[in-house]
Amino acid sequence: MKSHSLFSCFKIVVIGMLLIGMSSCEGIRMKYAMLEAAECGDVRTVRAMLDKGIPIESRRGRDWRTPLHLAARNGHYETCKMLIEYGADVNAEDRMVNRYYVDNGEVISYWYDTPLQLAAHFNHADICQLLINHGAMINKKNAEGYTPLDTAMNNGSVDAARVLIKNGATY
């Protein structure tokens, strides 16, 4: 299930295409437009922005996710493939905040998930295989101690778990 609406994706595509022709002062807006385009699976806009020099490892402020994190999470295989071809780090870690409360107050921790963790969580088996084929660390644990296989099993992502096991994953 996608976390964005068709209208928001269309809006990002239009904004992204407009920004491609703009000057250097628009670089920050272009970075965020590229992140949104990757999240929506808009290969054409992401490629155009990369060709214009927007860094492939641009990160979203609130969670430090890269375009590859966002495309992998949302199941956009072609976008993931293109980002990898352009040199995206398949083992980049995010800093997704995990907040919980104990008697003494709020505790904040970070997940440090990779694109493979996110693809496994959301059962995108084809993207798991793509990432593994390009050097994703299959047994890398996040900050909570979960491997991608743990994440897949905990979320009922059977197809992703099969791909991970077939490729030698452990938990």
Structure, briefly:
With 171 residues, this protein is mainly alpha-helical.
Question: What can you tell me about this protein's structure?
Answer:
The protein contains 9 helices and 2 strands; from the N terminus they run H-H-H-H-H-E-E-H-H-H-H. The protein has a single domain, classed as Alpha Horseshoe (Serine Threonine Protein Phosphatase 5, Tetratricopeptide repeat). A two-stranded antiparallel ribbon has the order 1-2. 50% of the residues lie in helices and 7% in strands. The chain is mainly alpha-helical and 171 residues long. It has helices at 6-20, 27-40, 43-51, 67-73, 77-85, 115-121, 125-133, 148-154, 158-166; strands at 97-102, 105-110. It is globular and about 50 Å long. Helix 2 runs antiparallel to helix 3 and helix 4 packs parallel to helix 6.
* CATH level-four homologous superfamily name: Ankyrin repeat-containing domain
Radius of gyration: 17 Å
| Total strand segments | 2
Number of helices: 9
Oligomeric form of this entry? Answer: single chain
CATH class: Mainly Alpha
Tell me the series of helices and strands, N- to C-terminal. Answer: HHHHHEEHHHH
Give the mean pLDDT.
Answer: 83
Main sheet: strand order: 1-2
Find the structural class using helix and strand composition. Answer: mainly alpha
The general outline is globular
Strand content: 5-15%
- Flag low-confidence runs: none
Fraction of residues in helix: 40-55%
Q: What's the number of structural domains?
A: 1
Largest sheet: 2 strands, antiparallel
- Any guess at the CATH architecture? Alpha Horseshoe
